Each structure stands twice: as structure tokens, then as C-alpha cells.
Amino acid sequence: MTNIVLFGKPGAGKGTQADFLKIKYNLFHISTGDLFRFNISNKTSLGNLAKAYIDNGDLVPDKVTIEMLKECVEANFKSEGFIFDGFPRTISQAKVLDQFLQKKKISISAMISLEVDEEILIKRLIDRGKISGRTDDMDESKVRNRFREYNMKTSILQDYYKKQNKFHRISGIGSIEKINSRLTRLIDSFL
Ligand code: AMP
Q1: For the domain that residue 87 is a member of, what is the CATH number?
Q2: Which atom of ligand 1 is nearest to the CA of 34?
Q3: Mutual orientation of helices 62-75 and 32-41 as an angle, nearest 10°?
Q4: Quick one: average pLDDT of 31-46?
Q5: Which residues lie closer than 8 Å to 157 by C-beta, 6 or more apart?
Q6: Which end of the chain is more exposed for a tag (fewer CB within 10 A), N or C?
Q7: Residue 80 sits in which domain range?
Q8: Number of separate domains in the chain
Q9: What's the whole-number average pLDDT of the chain?
Q10: How many C-beta atoms lie closer than 10 Å to residue 23's C-beta?
Q11: pLDDT band at 184 (very low <50, low <70, confident <90, very high)
Q12: Which residue's alpha carbon is nearest to atom 11 within ligand 1?
């Protein structure tokens, strides 16, 4: 199984690139942000719980997020592998993911970070919010809070995966096609 963690700040292009990669490599794409938004629009109890955190640009508590992630992996375990997009975002999420996959005799193949400067991302997110209507993209203070959360809790995961020799970085600036070919060149090199 090929299991890739797509990593990067909000707006770095993880979802856009995952849409290409899942087809090229026949992987199942899990976006925890999309799962939360699906639950919010369907007014499930999980959605109701997560809504306030997401609206403020805060991370949803680990316990809830991890449970949701595990359920999604279990339900799609027949696939040839996974693209994790937006998960893990904390050290405890990464540790639980490793233990969980180990029990299933699989592991993360690589963590790929899409690197883009914050000021470019803020503009991207505000523009995206105008089209998508995502409330957490429309307000600059919420966007900045998401970066604060990333810098405090998530960026440290680079070291976690570096220690496992699984960390790779590529530039997330340029056309979607250019970024896509950087990604596929990298993935093909370790497949
Ligand atoms: P995203 O679509 O990945 O930008 O995620 C949107 C929002 O969903 C984030 O700002 C968080 O509030 C929440 N979220 C998504 N993934 C996670 C995660 N792994 N841990 C905690 N909160 C998450």
C-alpha cells in the first residue's frame, strides 16, 4: 500500500493536488476538513461539535478527529492506499496514526510538504472564500488564526517525519500542472 501524507499550510493546494494524485495512483483521498464540512452540512452530532472550532479557525479536538479518521480508514481499507490531506495536524494525531496503521501491517510511505509563503496563502484563501463561501476562508483574522494553529501545533510534524526519513518538501508555487509534475516525479522516485 502507498500511503501519503500531504502536508502544508491552509491554502497550500493539498486538496487540489490530491484530486489528481488519487486518480494517477489509485489512492483513496481522506480530507479531514472535507469530512467535517460534510458533517456540518448534514447537521450530524459530529458536525455540530466541530462547527464552532472550524468557524474560529481552531483545530478540532484530537479525540474527535482521530475517531473520525479511523472510521474512514476502516471503511475504505480495500483501496490500494491513502492520501491523508489535513491529517495528522498534531503530534498525538501522528502517533495514533502510526500505531493504528502498524496494527494493520501498513505504514506511511512519505510525508510531502507543499511549501508556500503565508502572505501568498492569505490572498489565495480570501479569494477562495469568495467563491466557496467557506466562512473560515472569508475572514482574514480567522485565516491568521489557522496559521497560528499550524505554526504552534502542526509544523513540528516535519521533525516527526524527518526522524523517520519520510519527509519531503516541494514548492507549492506555480501552475497546478507544474506542482503536479513536481509531486509525481517525487512519488515515482520512491514507489
Ligand atoms: P482544512 O479543510 O484542512 O483547511 O480544515 C478546515 C478546518 O477543519 C481546520 O481549520 C480545523 O478546524 C478542522 N480540521 C481539519 N483537519 C483537522 C485535524 N486533523 N485536526 C484538527 N482539526 C482539523
Answers
A1: 3.40.50.300
A2: 2
A3: 100
A4: 97
A5: 7, 88, 89, 90, 91, 94, 111
A6: C
A7: 2-190
A8: 1
A9: 96
A10: 10
A11: very high
A12: 59
- Residue of the nearest CA to atom 4 in ligand 1? 10
Give the pLDDT band of residue 191 (cuts 50, 70, 90). confident
Block residue for cell numbers 483501496? 79
Look-up: residue for cell 491513502? 82
Instruction: Give the H/E segment covering residue 85.
Output: strand 81-85
Per-residue pLDDT at 132 exceeds 90: no
What is the predicted pLDDT for the residue at 128?
Answer: 92
Q: How many residues does the chain have?
A: 191
Helix (H) or strand (E) holding 53: helix 45-56
Question: Please, where are the H alpha helices in 88-152?
Answer: 91-103, 118-132, 135-138, 140-149
Q: How far is CA 132 from the centre of its chain?
A: 18
* 128 is known as an active-site residue: yes
Cβ neighbours for 112, distance < 8 A, ≥ 6 positions apart: 4, 5, 6, 7, 168, 169, 170, 183, 186, 187
pLDDT digits (tens, 9 = 90+) for 9-23: 999 999 999 999 999
Using CA positions, which residue lies closest to atom 1 of ligand 1? 33
Q: Is 71 helix (H, G, I), strand (E, B) or coil?
A: helix
Measured between alpha carbons, how far is 63 from 46 in angstroms, rounded to an integer?
Answer: 12
Contact between residue 69 and residue 87 where contact means Cβ atoms under 8 Å apart: yes
Q: What's the confidence (pLDDT) of residue 125? A: 94
Residue 147 has pLDDT above 90, yes or no: yes
High-pLDDT (> 90) share of the chain, %: 96
